[in-house]
Design goal:
Helix content is 21%, strand content 20%. It has 343 residues and is an alpha+beta fold. It starts with 10 loop residues before the first strand and ends in a 6-residue tail after the last helix.
Length: 343
């Protein structure tokens, strides 16, 4: 059934992770299969792009390197992944860490924090989903390693891993990369997420993410992960990749699970690229704060969220905190399940 079917009426859904309300409005929709980006994120002929500071051989034009993962025989200058400081950081690692951050009311503290870049490949034309599965897994393990490094800095309370693909999604460089920010506080949206999943757990005795059972919103799954369109997806064709095992910390990922996750992430990005004409997108890893009480573990479950940028946020969304999604999750999941990557 398409979301524009006359038998479908509008619905308001609330999700059990963020507590957000979403209006699903078929009257505002085309058919789910008609959603395609009119502004592809990538250069249609990327091989013509001149070399950039993230390309191999131009390492001296970047900010200082934190670490690298080498490839091949590990010869001089050879690398697969580099983690570097951001040349234009949002936060400053040399600033004095705040001693105390009030939980309520207005406050002002120093701009201390870490802002890093993960260069996912030495070669400009290669996108993350062009890499072999094991190399996508290595990118995920680079995230893990940097999170563990930042966790040893007592002033870092939360680490946000994210990727912006395409200028309208916030990417200032076209070379495939992602970013990591270490914050001296737990962001309010993270606290709100944990508070809401706690409320659900206190009421039902169950973890919100462990309870996702519906096959109607499932796109694909592996031994360790499920890819779904969430029941109350805020955005059209939004995808969550969720560990099937209850686990709070992304940085507990081992090599086997990283490769498993890498394969599913690659598949989802390939499907979005083909179905939606290489749309700009963001992905974010929603994990636990670094100093999480053991009492919070039963309702804390990390996941990776992928958001294609197919529309704009209007006054209703800004004013109400509710979102309008023209594509029902069940329809989006069906379309993505059926994307044929063999042609």
């Amino acid at each position: 059934m398409s979301s524009s079917s006359p038998s479908r009426s509008s619905e308001i859904r609330r999700d059990a992770v963020f507590g957000r309300c979403v209006v699903f409005s078929p009257a505002r929709a085309r058919r789910p299969s008609d959603f395609r980006s009119h502004s592809p994120a990538s250069n249609p002929n990327p091989s013509s792009k001149p070399s950039c500071p993230f390309c191999i051989g131009r390492e001296d034009e970047c900010a200082p390197e934190i670490f690298r993962i080498v490839g091949g025989d590990g010869g001089a200058g050879e690398w697969k992944i580099r983690v570097i400081e951001n040349l234009y950081p949002a936060l400053r690692r040399e600033a004095e860490p705040p001693k105390d951050v009030p939980e309520l009311g207005p406050c002002k503290v120093s701009g201390f924090g870490f802002h890093d870049v993960v260069i996912e490949t030495p070669y400009h034309p290669i996108r993350l989903w062009d890499l072999p599965v094991d190399e996508v897994g290595e990118v995920l393990l680079a995230y893990k390693e940097r999170i563990l490094q930042l966790s040893r800095h007592g002033s870092v309370k939360y680490v946000q891993v994210f990727k912006n693909h395409g200028a309208s999604a916030g990417a200032s460089m076209t070379h495939s990369h992602s970013q990591i920010i270490g914050l001296p506080l737990v962001p309010p949206s993270v606290s709100a997420r944990l508070n809401y999943t706690k409320e659900v757990f206190d009421r039902t005795g169950k973890c919100s993410l462990c309870e996702i059972q519906s096959k109607d919103i499932l796109i694909d799954e592996t031994d360790h992960f499920s890819a779904i369109v969430p029941f109350a997806a805020t955005y059209a064709f939004e995808i969550w990749i969720v560990p099937r095992e209850h686990i709070a910390d992304f940085h507990e990922l081992d090599h086997k699970k990283a490769v498993d996750l890498g394969g599913l992430l690659k598949l989802m990005l390939q499907k979005l690229s083909k179905q939606l004409n290489d749309p700009p997108f963001n992905f974010m890893i929603h994990a636990a704060p670094l100093e999480l009480s053991a009492t919070c573990l039963p309702y804390t479950h990390w996941f990776l969220q992928i958001v294609p940028q197919l529309g704009v946020i209007g006054g209703f969304e800004i004013g109400s905190g509710c979102f309008i999604n023209p594509v029902f999750p069940e329809d989006a999941a069906k379309v993505l399940r059926e994307v044929d990557l063999s042609t």
